[in-house]
């Protein structure tokens, strides 16, 4: 099973690890089971057989509305958000060469959060909620640009990116708190739900918009993927084999920011997914960015989907944000990684 299979198509060739393919198939099967189970549970319970009947025959109009218009778009949005955050975290850990790197620790999520809270406090009343995703993505991009420029000194080294990212993240978190203190109670409550991370009330327009955005970003990532492993070497060694390290690092960082910004824009500031999912993926598949990326996306999707199911079923009739349950799972794992990395 560990022997690679070589696939050739003209001038294109690719080695496929059979063990990795088998595990990816298993992870995809688990993902489908999670989706299937999530559609069956909630305030209105239905059997798995009834869910299949609704999806393919639409026999019961009332239950069909609950499954197809209320639960399915919410599950789809949760899966896309989790996959995007996981891919963003995997890219960051690869280019920074730090296993603790993630969008929420390096300031990307904080930039999106600060911009979103500013928008909710000062512009949402006149412009509505439509432009909130744009504000969040713009905030993520500006925060990362500031980190990159501040870290630049004859190149942006991974260590400087981490240190300055943590500092900028703390400053943006303080800015967010400052704005919330002077906001109205209604704005503060909606902002806190968004900051925790929630896919509550999702309609089909949201996962469709996010899916189109992610397709464009992943297309660019596919073009860069073959260079990621070389970029993980020391800068002089990577340059010695012909890699333009700073240009590649900047391009991968832009892809990571776009993924995290889009996920935060539609799903809120869900923490720890970008940290946990890449580590789990690396334990499940053989070394190689393509396999790790697909597995990380599946793991991240499952984490957020399961967290959302727990949030809407454990404390009925309350519907809690998914970010709470991701944090419950992520905090112990983060502490474990800190202890493991201690010299």
Classified by CATH, the class is Mainly Alpha
Computed CA radius of gyration, to the nearest angstrom: 21 Å
Number of strands: 2
Helix content: over 70%
| Shape designation | globular
What low-confidence regions span 5 or more consecutive residues with pLDDT below 50?
A: none
CATH topology: ABC transporter involved in vitamin B12 uptake, BtuC
- Can you give the mean pLDDT? 82
Name of the CATH architecture: Orthogonal Bundle
Q: Please count the helical segments.
A: 15
Order of helices and strands: EEHHHHHHHHHHHHHHH
Q: How many individual domains?
A: 1
CATH superfamily: ABC transporter involved in vitamin B12 uptake, BtuC
Q: Main beta sheet: strand number and arrangement?
A: 2 strands, antiparallel
Q: How many angstroms does the end-to-end distance come to? A: 36 Å
Question: How does this model look, in words?
Answer:
- This protein is mainly alpha-helical and 343 residues long.
- The chain has one domain (73-341): Orthogonal Bundle (ABC transporter involved in vitamin B12 uptake, BtuC), CATH 1.10.3470.
- It contains 15 helices and two strands.
- Strands 1-2 form a two-stranded antiparallel sheet.
- β1 and β2 (12-17) form a beta hairpin.
- α6 (132-151) packs antiparallel against α12 (245-267).
- The chain is globular.
- The two termini are 36 Å apart.
Search tags:
343 residues; mainly alpha; ABC transporter involved in vitamin B12 uptake, BtuC; two-stranded antiparallel ribbon; 15 helices; globular
């Amino acid at each position: 099973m560990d022997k690679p299979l070589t696939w050739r198509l003209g001038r294109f060739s690719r080695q496929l690890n059979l063990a990795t393919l088998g595990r990816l198939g298993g992870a995809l099967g688990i993902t489908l089971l999670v989706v299937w189970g999530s559609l069956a549970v909630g305030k209105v319970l239905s059997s798995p057989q009834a869910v299949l009947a609704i999806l393919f025959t639409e026999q019961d109009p009332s239950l069909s509305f609950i499954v197809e218009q209320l639960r399915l778009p919410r599950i789809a949005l949760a899966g896309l958000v989790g996959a995007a955050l996981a891919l963003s975290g995997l890219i960051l850990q690869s280019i920074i060469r730090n296993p603790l790197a993630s969008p929420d620790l390096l300031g990307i999520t904080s930039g999106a959060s600060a911009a979103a809270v500013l928008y909710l406090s000062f512009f949402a009343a006149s412009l509505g909620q439509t432009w909130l995703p744009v504000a969040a993505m713009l905030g993520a991009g500006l925060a990362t640009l500031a980190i990159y420029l501040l870290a630049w000194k004859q190149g942006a080294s991974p260590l400087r990116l981490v240190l300055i990212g943590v500092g900028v993240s703390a400053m943006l978190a303080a800015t967010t708190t400052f704005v919330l203190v002077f906001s109205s109670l209604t704005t503060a409550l909606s902002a806190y739900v968004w900051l925790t991370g929630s896919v509550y009330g999702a309609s089909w327009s949201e996962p469709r918009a996010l899916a189109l955005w992610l397709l464009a970003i992943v297309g660019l990532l596919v073009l860069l993927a073959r260079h990621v492993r070389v970029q993980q070497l020391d800068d002089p060694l990577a340059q010695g084999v012909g890699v333009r390290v700073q240009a590649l690092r900047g391009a991968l960082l832009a892809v990571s920011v776009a993924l995290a910004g889009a996920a935060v824009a539609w799903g809120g500031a869900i923490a720890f997914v970008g940290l946990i999912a890449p580590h789990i993926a690396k334990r499940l598949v053989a070394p190689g960015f393509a396999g790790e990326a697909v597995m990380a996306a599946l793991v991240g999707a499952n984490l957020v989907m399961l967290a959302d199911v727990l949030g809407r079923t454990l404390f009925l009739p309350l519907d809690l944000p998914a970010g709470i349950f991701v944090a419950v799972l992520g905090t112990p794992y983060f502490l474990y990684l800190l202890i493991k990395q201690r010299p």
